[in-house]
Amino acid sequence: MDSLLIRRNDLHFILYEFLQIDELSKLPRFAEHSRATYDAALELAYGVAETQFATHAKAGDEQEPVFDGQRVHLIPEVKAALDAFCDAGFMAATHDYGAGGMQLPAAVEQACMALFSAANIGTVAYAFLTRAAANLVAAFGSIEQKARYLQPMLEGRFFGTMALTEPQAGSSLADIRTLAEPLDDGSYRLRGNKIFISGGDHELAENIVHLVLARIKGAPAGVKGISLFIVPKFRVRDDGSVGARNDVALAGLIHKMGYRSTTSTMLNFGERDQCTGYLVGAPNQGLAYMFQMMNEARIQVGLGAAALACTGYLHALAYAASRPQGRLPQGKDPAAPQVPIIEHADVRRMLVTQKAYGEGSLALCLYAAKLLDLQRHTEDESERVRAGLLLDILTPIVKSWPSQYGLEANALAIQVHGGYGYTREYPVERFYRDNRLNPIHEGTQGIQALDLLGRKVAMAGGAAFDALLAEIRLTIAGCSTVALLAAHAEALEGAVKLVADTTRVLLATLRTDSSLALANATVYLEMCGHLVVAWTWLGQAKAALRTSVTTAGNADLREGKLLACDWFFRCEVPKIAVQAKLLQSLDRSLLDMRVESL
Amino acid sequence: MDSLLIRRNDLHFILYEFLQIDELSKLPRFAEHSRATYDAALELAYGVAETQFATHAKAGDEQEPVFDGQRVHLIPEVKAALDAFCDAGFMAATHDYGAGGMQLPAAVEQACMALFSAANIGTVAYAFLTRAAANLVAAFGSIEQKARYLQPMLEGRFFGTMALTEPQAGSSLADIRTLAEPLDDGSYRLRGNKIFISGGDHELAENIVHLVLARIKGAPAGVKGISLFIVPKFRVRDDGSVGARNDVALAGLIHKMGYRSTTSTMLNFGERDQCTGYLVGAPNQGLAYMFQMMNEARIQVGLGAAALACTGYLHALAYAASRPQGRLPQGKDPAAPQVPIIEHADVRRMLVTQKAYGEGSLALCLYAAKLLDLQRHTEDESERVRAGLLLDILTPIVKSWPSQYGLEANALAIQVHGGYGYTREYPVERFYRDNRLNPIHEGTQGIQALDLLGRKVAMAGGAAFDALLAEIRLTIAGCSTVALLAAHAEALEGAVKLVADTTRVLLATLRTDSSLALANATVYLEMCGHLVVAWTWLGQAKAALRTSVTTAGNADLREGKLLACDWFFRCEVPKIAVQAKLLQSLDRSLLDMRVESL
Fold first, then answer.
1. Closest partner residue to A590 among B349, B449, B598, by Cβ?
2. What is the pLDDT of residue B545?
3. Residue B309 host element (H or E)
4. Can you give the pTM of this predicted structure?
5. B325 closest CB neighbour out of A172, A556, A589
6. ipTM value of the model?
7. Alpha-carbon distances of B123 from A170, A273, B4, B407, B559, rounded to whole Å
8. Beta bridge partners of B72
9. Burial status of residue A183 (CB atoms within 10 A of its CB: 0-12, 13-18, 19 or more)
């Protein structure tokens, strides 16, 4: 039996057939890699995810972190799993050989991360945060900072956090108040409170490197006055050894409905006015640095949501195949045995819906990861620019669509289990609770929508949007003569036209009345998401037809991809027209309503 | 400030303006009632719900029932709340004055139940189950059974359960195996296992009256061989006093994601072959009896889901009005103060969506409750029949639509709260977990869909379906000359036509290929749900325009109803065409797929 995390043949199909990542090995960065090394990394991830992460997912959910006023207590399996993760090299998977990394493509690394997410998203979150912090220091830190903080993070000796949010400034980073005063030695004294800091305290590593957004005294108001600081939990001596505590105090833990083995913390910086921080890069550039790293964190969230959808689907599928219940409409003889519920049309509907949402999301997220590789490592400059544009415009969709529809897939996984689905005997209710965080953290759906319509669509004179539509039309052109796909290609062309027309109307309005243009931005985000996921399904269907069918498993996979593609075009694509109509009507009601009428 | 459960003015509006339940007082059954007595009952319910139920909702969720091998332990607040509920007369609210009841209309009683559900659905569930069991005994029990079991249930001294489900027979009641052997004294000896029995064990009452479905030895296979039994936890002596334990053993508690203060139990009947049960009514009629009571239980579930949507909405609204965050698109000056998030269009979108789902669901459920009153107590025979037909066809919609969209409303309530939404500091994540049970228990969405399309639509020669469309057209006719509503009336007429056409196609197919007709029954259920909720919104809008506006509160309410009605027609009604098209295509893919391709 294949893995219940994400099926091997599906992951291989998406990477090698749909995305054709073998091509990446032609780039100098990945010259020493090949399908054999990618497969080895994936198998390593399957092994560690299944034996170290999945095994304590239930316990980590049920026994959440406890703060006794001095220390945070976690079940020991969390540390064991993260140690195994680091020992296997995943913390530095994409980093240079010279830094102890594997120089894996992001596409492969993210495929591995999808497995850890499916296995135990609450525990692997510590690693995600550390990687994000490490990447930030790698991109913008000084040589000295890299030696002192980055290297230990890549080795898994130090963990990291991203400390942005403050109680009075959730999505509104312009309102951050944490203050940094320069000291004579070049360091800064920080004072402020941060909230919702995931992984903000624990004893899983020797040290925690907080990447903190703060204002240098006298900096301009708003986002233009935000700087980025390294604030370690323990001071690090010049020889790299861990010294005394810095003035960073855990004010309390936040208890969540999901991701429960991840500590979510309120942190006080400088309660005793002894909190030392170190400026990263130039003053007042903090938000720009953060944004440059945001793509990766947001892909990560989308990928986690996709992974939860995929594993929920496989659990529901296994349950449906083994659970006898009821009889078919045409055969109600009570003396006949009951049939497995997978025989019921409605159960199949719920399964194929999950498959379409989950595998469609996964394909999209891994496509985005491949764009990361191309953006960074392709030698052709124009190709790098094109990949960067595509990544920029896709990021809000990659973050939000899997978060919304992956959650819906998990709701259906519960539904397939009937009454058992909402009990803690089966893992699907946990997937559902875990996944409910994804449409919120790292920027809510509403924030992604403003990013897409308010920034990305019009950026570079619309070049990113044009590049995306050009990619989609390329796939359409490649499918319009394929008998099984021609109708879908035509439907997708119609959808492209609707989205393009709608975008034109909204961009024109954006110039004259930005509030009106942005009033239904979330509907626009969802419409674009449907377009893009329809495109990945057409691309997957085309790849499936291209694949040689040599085994029964191959044949099943091909048939399944065509089935899910058909389903998506039949049931989901028609929603685009409804959304386009609403958007083109430039409805003012959300702006004009009196709040007293709510 | 008005209640955060359900707003008083909204509940009054739905009952008195939309449903015009004052009319019920003209019926002999309710002759002693008036708006004054209804208001008094509602105020009593507000009081008990807010002071006894809402107060321990969080504690009841966090400290779920524990079975120590001998006894089930609950936090003491659960019993205190249920005692207060019984003392206030709600357990017998609709029953005869002679039996100690209040003879309240079901519409008013259900409005009260909505308040308890909004306050603490996990605790009030014990009362719901007891009422359902009591109603079953009232309808079908012998005079002796009523004296011995019903009266103590109405007084709240005994609680009740509905024991249908068995491990091998979830939704498939035909496969129930619990066996009943007749004894010489007219009683039966039962043996079998039941699962998911809510309220199946506890010490909240002197006794528990289990209403158990079982087969009398030698009965026909399938649903035609199921009988209904009273099986008390403690034997009841002839003088009504509680005697020794019956042979009903708690095998274990099931831990759920929601409704956590309700015990969910596995019960073993007759482990020591000493379990005595008493036949209710005639042999082999058990399922028919159950079905006659099912309307009420299913309305109850829909109502609970609607109530959770309404209270989630009010919590989100209060949060949105008080939480400052960010600035509007046209005013990004960081020196300006932040605005309350209710000023953001996307937050308003999430609020009006919740309002439309929640208040639309509540209006629908209370309409169904009014139909119960008319079916039972109207003097005109043809009116009774008509009410019964409407109730029959609406029941699967009343059960399923609020369960699906009420849950969606709660997801949006979380989203409005941002990161706080998924923490246990705010109640919205609990509402969401509680509400996730509603699309499953008392018959899943798929079961409701088969009930609607496979039975109700064609029943009595299509009379129920015709009656429903006639009602909807009556509302349309009444609105088509009202300037503010004419466009919606026209859209609703279009939707009626789509639904009627689709129904004709499906019914024709049902005769030739039932599997094909039923393959997309869940989509049909959802489409009909959208039609019916659109109708309740048009009706509410019409009622709002009819209401005299004498206060600012009145004006806000009218404007709010019109706003939500507009929103529902703008964003939801267009989905009906998408669903109709899918259904009319008679898609075979769910039937023809090979399960290996999933």
1. B349
2. 96
3. helix B286-322
4. 0.97
5. A172
6. 0.96
7. 35, 49, 18, 19, 35
8. B67
9. exposed
